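quick one before i forget lol
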Amino acid sequence: MKFLHTSDWHLGRSFHRVNLLGAQAAFIDHLVETVREHEVDAVLVAGDVYDRAVPPLPAVELYDQVLHRLADLGVPTVMISGNHDSARRLGVGAGLIGRAGIHLRTDPAGCADPVVLADLHGDVAFYGLPYLEPALVKDEFGAGKVSHEAVLSAAMDRIRADLAGRAPGTRSVVLAHAFVVGGQACDSERDITVGGVEAVPASVFDGVDYAALGHLHGCQTINERVRYSGSPLAYSFSEADQRKSMWLVEMGEGGDIVSTERVDTPVPRGLARVRGPLEELLSESAYARYEDCWVEATLTDAVRPEEPMARLAVRFPHVLSLAFDPEGRGEDAGGSYAQRLKGRSDREIAEDFVAHVRGGGGFSDDAERDVLQGAFDEVRAEDSRQETHR
């Protein structure tokens, strides 16, 4: 049996205020074409279909389109809710939609009720394990404590019990949305920490033939049978070096993983992270290859340049993010904030702040100090006027 493993579509998400709906639509086109070209037997979507619980209408329309297109192909689809989704909203009409071959698994209580598909070697049971918020599902699963490992382990016990009662030789696939030990996170994933622990061991999925994971946005192999597909698009600059793809997995007789292939997804525009003094970024030929990319620039100038974003946009018209990290900036003094300010005047505190943001450079001349002093004098005068009229 051949299935396509994908996750973390985050329909409706933008990238630094850039609307990604067109890029997400291009991904959906690519997904449908991949299913058709490779004669896929099942599509697995391991959560975070939407980017937020109440998605914008264009995202809902795109979701509706992909459901119709997959149903028209006659290819069964198993989809779970992730931590960004509203499980209740995503699961509306699941029973009716299931008749069209689109199987939504958003209710934790139904995790041991699989979608059973068959091939020449017999049945394959696909178990949809939606994102489990420990505090909300602890009682449902009778977990010993409020933790991701406890609730996932309890849910997997139900799945293994159901599998044990099925015909000998029944193969199994679990879809889950979780942070598994060994996975590498990036900046665009929402924290799911509970009690300081969010990661669960891969061993919780022992006893099944393949675990199709979602949540982490980088495509990763935890082990031969436990994999993340990653997100089809980059949603933060921390993903600049990631290759975006889906897993095309072929399962043979006895649950053996015959082959796994990464199917690349369309890249709307490359990402680049550049760092250095502003003049160097604007003039060095080494940065020419980034001129058509979405750019995150970190300036290391000792003194903050004037209008840096506008000047960068001349060379990098798609620059989206700007940060400052002046070279040679000393470490902050020790002690609490209150201790560091003790005994210092308002002007001294302001001068320290100016020196901090300028990487230790301080004021360039006495004229700047006069402007600062004039501002303080004006504030004091206004305070005095208000006090007089009280």
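fyi DSSP finds eleven helices and 19 strands in the chain.
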